[in-house]
Design brief:
Number of strands: 13
CATH topology of the largest domain: OB fold (Dihydrolipoamide Acetyltransferase, E2P)
Number of helices: 10
Number of domains: 2
Largest sheet: 5 strands, mixed, barrel
Helix content: 25-40%
Distance between the termini: 24 Å
C-alpha cells in the first residue's frame, strides 16, 4: 500500500480527470444533463435477451448522420456502425474554406496537425453520406444486431450495431454494402468482426479490384489506406488474442463490455489482466502516475503506477489511444465526492504492462502529385502476437 500523502494527491488528480471527462457536452460545446443516458432499460434488455439481436426499429427522420452513423426511433443514442469507418463530412466553414484552397493544401495542413493518420472531412466523406441516403431511401424500418452479447455501447454511449434492411424482397447488410461500394474499408481497429469478417473482407477485395470510392486514385480521399489497414489489422489481432484467452479466464477483463467494471468488484485484492486503450495520463506532484484505460466517458479504469520508473520503463506513454494489457492487483477506495466505491489496478513493475507488437503509425504523408491509391489487394497486414497477451 502506498502512502496517504501520495494517495491524496492521486485522488485529486483522478477526480479532476474523471469530472472533466464525465461532463455531458451539448452540440455547442457546453454541457447538458439531457445528454446523459439511462442504463436501466439496457440492463433489463440484456437480462431478457443476452443474444446479438437488438430488434427492429423505425429509421428516425433525418436519420442519416453520415456514412457510418444513423439514428433510429426508440433508442436514446445514435448508432455507430460496426466494421466500417467512412471519411468525415464537411461541418465547418473553416474546413470548407481551407479545402477551397486545393485538396493537397488542405490535406497537408490537416496532416501537420496530427501525429496519427488524419481523420478529416473529405469529398469521399460527403459521397459516403450520399450513398447512405440513397441506400436507405424509402426504408422505414431497420433490423439491428450487435457483434457480441455484452458489447452494446461505445465509449460515448452510441449503440454498436450491424444494420440490415429489406429491399425488393432481399435482406441487405448495409455495413457490408458500404464496403462493397468503396465508401469505407473493412475496419478492425477495435477488434475483428466476429460474425461477418469474411463478408467484409470479400467486399473490400471486390471494391479494390473495381477501384470504387476510396480505391479510385482519381478521387480525393485519404491517401494512406494501406498504412491504416496494417495498423488496424495489428490492433485487431492484439484484441483477438486477449479475448481468446479471456474466454477461459474469469480474471481477464475487456473494457467497454457491459458491466465489466461491476464484475471487477468481485476481484478486490486479487490479480487481474485488463485490456483497454490508453485514454489519459496524469502525472501527480508526488511519485505516482495515473493512467486511465478507456471504458465509458467519465467511468474509465484508473491504473496506478506507484513507481515513476516503472511507468517510464513500461513504454505505455508512447501508446496513447492504443490497446494495452495491464496485469496487477485490484484495489478499492471510497470516493466521497462521487459517493461510490472505485476500483483501480496497481502497477509496481514495468513487466506488468504488455504493449502491442507493432509501432503505431505516424501522421499521414501527402503523396507527390500524380500518385494515387494502391489498387492491389492488401496482403497480410502485420503479424499478430505469437502468444496471447497476458
Amino acid at each position: 500500500m502506498f502512502g496517504g500523502r501520495h494517495r491524496a494527491r492521486l485522488r485529486s488528480a483522478w477526480l479532476a480527470a474523471s469530472l472533466t471527462a464525465c461532463a455531458p457536452r451539448s452540440s455547442e460545446g457546453g454541457t447538458a444533463a439531457a445528454d446523459r443516458f439511462d442504463r436501466t432499460a439496457i440492463d433489463a434488455a440484456l437480462r431478457a435477451d443476452p443474444g446479438v439481436v437488438l430488434g427492429t426499429f423505425r429509421l428516425a427522420p433525418k436519420g442519416i448522420v453520415d456514412g457510418d452513423t444513423l439514428k433510429v426511433e426508440g433508442l436514446d443514442a445514435s448508432l455507430r456502425l460496426l466494421g466500417i469507418d467512412t471519411e468525415e463530412t464537411f461541418k465547418t466553414k473553416s474546413d470548407r474554406a481551407l479545402y477551397a484552397r486545393g485538396w493537397r493544401t488542405y490535406l497537408a495542413q490537416k496532416a501537420a496537425q496530427s501525429n496519427r493518420p488524419v481523420k478529416i472531412a473529405t469529398p469521399l466523406g460527403e459521397e459516403a453520406k450520399h450513398f447512405a441516403e440513397r441506400f436507405f431511401a424509402g426504408v422505414t424500418q431497420v433490423e439491428l444486431e450487435r457483434d457480441h452479447p455484452r458489447e452494446l455501447r461505445g465509449r460515448y454511449g452510441r449503440f454498436l450495431t450491424y444494420v440490415f434492411v429489406t429491399k425488393g424482397g432481399k435482406r441487405l447488410h448495409y455495413n457490408v454494402e458500404a464496403v462493397r461500394a468503396g465508401m469505407t474499408p473493412y475496419f478492425p481497429k477495435y477488434g475483428h468482426a466476429r460474425r461477418y469478417r469474411a463478408a467484409f473482407e470479400a467486399a473490400m477485395a471486390e471494391a479494390r479490384a473495381a477501384r470504387r470510392g476510396i480505391w479510385d486514385p482519381t478521387k480525393e480521399h485519404y491517401p494512406d489506406y494501406d498504412v491504416r489497414l496494417a495498423w488496424w489489422y495489428a490492433r485487431g489481432d492484439f484484441v483477438d488474442a486477449f479475448e481468446a484467452k479471456a474466454e477461459t479466464r474469469d480474471d481477464h477483463f475487456v473494457l467497454g463490455r457491459h458491466r465489466e467494471l461491476d464484475r471487477l468488484a468481485g476481484f478486490e485484492g486479487k490479480t487481474v489482466s485488463v485490456l483497454g486503450t490508453v485514454a489519459k495520463i496524469v502525472h501527480t506532484k508526488g511519485d505516482l502516475v495515473l493512467v486511465l484505460l478507456a471504458h465509458r466517458r467519465g467511468d474509465d479504469l484508473p491504473v496506478v503506477f506507484v513507481d515513476p520508473l516503472a511507468f517510464e520503463d513500461s513504454g505505455i506513454a508512447d501508446h496513447a489511444g492504443e490497446f494495452v494489457v495491464v496485469r496487477g492487483p485490484v484495489q478499492r477506495y471510497h470516493d466521497p465526492r462521487r459517493k461510490k466505491d472505485v476500483f483501480e489496478v496497481v502497477v509496481r513493475r514495468a513487466d506488468q504492462v504488455t504493449l502491442p507488437p507493432y509501432a503505431p503509425p505516424g501522421p499521414t504523408v501527402v503523396p507527390p502529385p500524380g500518385a494515387g491509391t494502391s489498387t492491389e489487394p492488401p496482403g497480410p497486414a502485420a503479424p499478430g502476437p505469437t502468444t496471447p497477451p497476458t
